[in-house]
Amino acid sequence: MLPGVEVWWVRHGATAANAAGVWQGQQDTLLSPEGAEEIRRLAEVLREKGLHFDALYASDLRRALDSARILGEVLGLSVKPDPRLRELCLGELAGRAKEDAMGAFAEYFEEAKKNPWHAKPPGGESLAELRQRLLDFFEELSPKARYLVVAHAGPIRVAVWEALGLGEYGQPWRLVVPNASLSRTDLAHHRAGPVGA
Question: In the CATH scheme, what architecture does the domain 6-194 have?
Answer without folding.
Answer: 3-Layer(aba) Sandwich (3.40)
